[in-house]
Specification:
This protein has helices at residues 15-24, 68-76, 105-115, 131-143, 213-218, 236-247; strands spanning 3-7, 29-35, 54-56, 62-64, 86-93, 119-126, 154-161, 170-173, 178-179, 186-189, 195-198, 205-207, 221-228. With 248 residues, the protein is α/β, with parallel strands linked by helices. The strands form three sheets. It has a nine-stranded mixed sheet with strand order 3-4-2-1-5-6-7-13-8. Strand 1, helix 1 (15-24) and strand 2 (29-35) form a beta-alpha-beta unit. The chain starts with a strand and ends with a helix.
């Protein structure tokens, strides 16, 4: 039976994680390792300043007092004798579209799995109602995972519209869109008169063309975007070299 490692960034008690587990438990041998609290926005951070605690819960899940990447690192890399065949992160409460992937702990958990040599999928629901829809999508993808062939260090970022299963129009392979510049932080005053700052909501879409993840979700399609971990802007290398040569 296929061995799957499940994780997330919303925390070990999140309903999206339970929905994912319940949809897959009849089809695979599951291990769940997730943060002990909400770690949304943790991105790819690892905890290096202290040791981590791994706690077994009554439902068979494991919680970690660290980041999503910590959870996958421990789940894959030596805590147990058996390595998983696949890492799946989610189901996230809210979409991870466009620039979101740079900050997302959901995507980071999948990325850590990919960095450790696993096939990895990040699953997000673009809302917080129809987790059963996203769970069905995840189950169908896992069922065909053996036939998936990806280039090295690639993962799949999957976003699902927050609609009933019968309202899903289909599945589209997409590229990441882009959002505009971030808004200013919101200043608030705490009870002691000190100023504190909330990070502002995401900005409006700057690129949501027909082939983007934004457009697919808006039209009612599941979006699947292959992601790579190489952030090099290869076409710009020649420009930078020419710039250096000009004043060398």
């Amino acid at each position: 039976m296929r061995r799957l490692l499940l994780s997330n960034d919303d925390g070990v008690y999140a309903p999206g994680l339970k929905a994912l587990h319940d949809a897959l438990e009849a089809h695979a041998k599951l291990r769940v390792v997730a943060p002990d609290r909400d770690r949304s926005g943790a991105s790819n951070s690892l905890t290096l300043s202290r040791p981590l605690s791994l706690t077994a819960l009554e439902n068979g899940f494991y919680s970690v007092d660290g980041t999503p990447a910590d959870c996958v690192y421990l789940g894959v890399n030596g805590v147990w004798d058996e390595r998983p065949d696949l890492v799946i992160s989610g189901i996230n409460h809210g979409g991870n579209l466009g620039d979101d992937v740079l900050y997302s702990g959901t995507v980071a958990a999948a990325m850590e799995g990919r960095n450790l040599g696993m096939i990895a999928i990040a699953m997000s629901l673009c809302g917080d109602r129809y987790f059963d829809t996203a769970a069905k999508v995840a189950s169908s993808l896992i069922g065909a995972a053996d036939q998936l062939s990806l280039p090295p260090r690639t993962l799949l970022n999957v976003n699902v519209p927050d609609v009933p299963w019968e309202a899903i129009k289909g599945v589209k392979v997409t590229r990441l869109g882009y959002r505009g510049p971030a808004e200013k932080p919101l200043a608030v005053e705490d009870p002691r008169g000190r100023t504190r700052y909330w990070i502002a909501p995401v900005a409006a879409n700057a690129d949501d063309g027909e082939d983007t993840d934004f457009a697919a979700i808006e039209a009612g399609y599941v979006s699947i975007t292959p992601l790579q971990t190489d952030l090099t802007r290869h076409p710009a290398c020649r420009d930078v070299q020419d710039w250096l040569d000009a004043f060398a």
